């Protein structure tokens, strides 16, 4: 079938199972947006207020659903506005396909209007990018992009399409041609089967085109490589030997557990080993919060139990985690008495920040499943009640009476109303860590936060994407007044599409985390961190046609929450501006560069 490039792009996205894209139009993508208009009954486009938040929305869509998120921007400044969102996704291993328009191929490299080398700019923050200069290569480029975004360690990719390619006629060869619906993951068809003429179960021979017509050579190699075993029985045997030798094993789990859908397997492993489990920020939700073996966060703002246990352990099992500086603080003093056993899908992470004694490279779910087949049902350990004793050491600030309205009260009361099925997004700062500490997460893909890049302004776009991906799950954004100033324009998106999200601004009128450091380490010199200035966020919500409520104490917060829940049940968004003391601190805290068991608790 002969279609213009823009139509081929839309067909290729639908073929991949894409139902929603986020973006902002412009001259270089006019043909794409014309096709989106024509096919709006098949694929939904969400118009955001700024391209950065299109990327964050695609990110939130992907994190909460496990699918690939898709965003679109025009050339030049539209494309560069995506970069922060792409980098955010890259740092947290989020599968995303960013599509940018560019000037026509005959104008590339000539400093044309709104021309920028977005492939060069994004090279450090994507798994791969493509500039499509042949319309007949567009469909296979899209297919390849989805393979790359999802395979191995997931991450963002970018497809840059010059305007003339979107207008040129090309041959569209669908993966399925009889209207029975898309194959949502192209990896379900192996390159070997295609080459041999073996048809997927339930498909007619007429549905499948030849391999060379469907997959590029690189895509065929990727599909084949993704099926190769990445670890051996000897790797598993080494891990089991370390388990048997250990007296004080401990598990440090990260976002890789969630990406691999291995939370159930992780719980089984912990119970077999009788090992305490600490989570990185990206790992929140990977292990049940109420489980007896759960010790909480680890690292700079880790619990006493987590940070002491890792220093006392004789075997530290890192599962889908990368030993970031926010976890280790001083790598030279981290888990010095422990052998390190590292499970990760990315071999580049092994021995990168902390040296490992042994490792198994591969999909976390497959690794743990293999281990569970050979491990005994129970391994005795020598923790002797120390974990429970350390769990009792809780900073006084967690129960502070220094303010009329405390962050813990705000978060826990909100959790009671929304229930355990809620999706919780945050921006970055004190509210982010308070949310990780106090919200009772019980399942994966419920906590959406920028852990690696630490992107203020991430939260509202992410919440929008998550709600659209999971319309039946209540969604809340906890944010700070500093972060919310960076994304409040997306209130227009909430209002226009009537997306019901609860926004709770934990408002201390300062850049709270920076102020905390200034208080502790800079002799209270509060340089440019006081934000006691407009706008009135409740009036701002009203200006966008949304409901807003002030809360300055526990009584008024509960009242505001009552009203907000009624708004949500009516399909409306609501905003609560909750005022707290500007000197509330996130505790525990490890000063930069110190061993993680040297914590500030008061």
Give structural notes:
With 602 residues, the chain is an alpha/beta fold. The protein is 38% helix and 15% strand. The strands form four sheets. A six-stranded parallel β-sheet has the order 3-2-4-5-7-6, sandwiched between helices. A six-stranded parallel β-sheet has the order 11-10-9-12-13-14, with helices on both faces. Helix 20 (430-438) links the parallel strand 15 and strand 16 (447-448). Helix 1 (5-15) packs across helix 2 (30-38) and helix 19 (407-418) crosses helix 20. The protein is globular.
Give me some keywords for this one.
single chain; 6-stranded parallel β-sheet; 602 residues; alpha/beta; 20 strands
Task: Report a brief summary of the structure.
The protein is α/β, with parallel strands linked by helices.
Tell me the strand percentage band: 15-25%
In which range does the helix fraction lie?
A: 25-40%
User: Overall pLDDT, averaged?
Assistant: 92
Q: Count the E strands.
A: 20
How are the strands of the biggest sheet laid out side by side? 3-2-4-5-7-6
The quaternary structure here is single chain
Q: Outline the low-pLDDT stretches.
A: 177-213
Distance between the termini: 69 Å
Q: Which structural class fits the helix and strand makeup? A: alpha/beta
Tell me the number of helical segments per DSSP (H or I, 4 or more residues long). 26
What's the overall geometry?
A: globular
What's the alpha carbon Rg, rounded to whole Å? 25 Å
């Amino acid at each position: 079938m002969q279609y213009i490039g823009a139509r081929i792009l839309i067909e290729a996205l639908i073929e991949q199972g894409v139902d929603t894209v986020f973006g902002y139009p412009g001259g270089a993508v006019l043909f794409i947006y014309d096709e989106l208009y024509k096919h709006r009954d098949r694929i939904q486009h969400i118009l955001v207020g700024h391209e950065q938040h299109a990327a964050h929305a695609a990110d939130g869509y992907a994190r909460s659903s496990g699918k690939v998120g898709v965003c679109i921007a025009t050339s030049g400044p539209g494309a560069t506005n995506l970069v922060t969102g792409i980098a955010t996704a890259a740092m947290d291993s989020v599968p995303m396909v960013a599509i940018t328009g560019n000037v026509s191929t005959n104008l590339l490299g000539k400093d044309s209007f709104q021309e920028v080398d977005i492939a060069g700019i994004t090279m450090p923050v994507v798994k791969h990018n493509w500039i499509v200069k042949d319309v007949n290569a567009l469909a296979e480029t899209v297919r390849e992009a989805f393979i790359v975004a999802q395979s191995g360690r997931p991450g963002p990719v970018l497809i840059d399409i010059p305007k003339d390619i979107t207008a040129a006629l090309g041959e569209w060869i669908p993966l399925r041609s009889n209207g029975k619906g898309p194959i949502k993951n192209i990896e379900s068809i192996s390159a070997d089967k295609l080459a041999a003429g073996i048809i997927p179960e339930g498909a007619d021979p007429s549905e499948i085109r030849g391999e060379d017509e469907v997959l590029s050579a690189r895509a065929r190699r990727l599909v084949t490589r993704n099926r190769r075993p990445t670890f051996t029985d000897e790797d598993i045997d080494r891990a089991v030997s370390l388990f048997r030798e250990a007296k004080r094993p401990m598990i440090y789990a990260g976002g890789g557990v969630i990406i691999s859908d291995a939370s159930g397997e992780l719980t089984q492993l912990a119970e077999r080993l009788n090992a305490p489990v600490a989570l990185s920020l990206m790992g929140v939700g990977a292990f049940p919060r109420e489980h007896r073996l759960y010790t909480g966060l680890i690292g700079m703002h880790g619990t006493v139990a987590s940070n002491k246990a890792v220093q006392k352990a004789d075997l530290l099992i890192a599962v889908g985690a990368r030993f970031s500086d926010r976890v280790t603080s001083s790598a030279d003093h981290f888990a010095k008495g422990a052998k390190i056993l590292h499970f990760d899908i990315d071999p580049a992470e092994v021995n990168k920040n902390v040296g490992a004694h042994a490792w198994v490279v591969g999909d976390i779910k497959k690794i743990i499943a293999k281990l569970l087949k050979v491990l005994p049902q129970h391994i005795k350990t020598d923790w002797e009640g120390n974990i429970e004793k350390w769990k009792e050491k809780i900073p006084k600030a967690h129960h502070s009476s220094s303010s009329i309205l405390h962050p813990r009260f705000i978060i826990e009361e909100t959790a009671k109303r929304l229930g355990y099925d809620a999706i919780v997004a945050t921006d970055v700062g004190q509210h982010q860590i308070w949310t990780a500490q106090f919200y009772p997460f019980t399942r994966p893909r419920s906590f959406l936060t920028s852990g690696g890049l630490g992107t203020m302004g991430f939260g509202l776009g992410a919440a929008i994407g998550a709600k659209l991906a999971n319309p039946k799950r209540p969604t809340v954004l906890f944010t700070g007044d500093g972060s919310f100033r960076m994304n409040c324009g997306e209130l227009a998106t909430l209002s226009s599409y009537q997306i019901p999200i609860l926004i709770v601004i934990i408002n201390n009128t300062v850049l709270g985390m920076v102020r905390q450091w200034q208080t502790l380490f800079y002799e209270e010199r509060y340089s440019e961190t006081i934000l006691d200035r407009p706008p009135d966020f409740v009036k701002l919500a009203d200006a966008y046609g949304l409901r807003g409520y002030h809360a300055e104490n526990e009584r008024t917060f509960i009242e505001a929450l009552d009203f907000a829940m009624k708004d949500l049940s009516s399909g409306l968004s609501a905003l609560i501006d909750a005022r707290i003391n500007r000197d509330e601190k996130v505790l525990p805290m490890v000063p930069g560069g110190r061993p993680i068991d040297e914590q500030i608790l008061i």
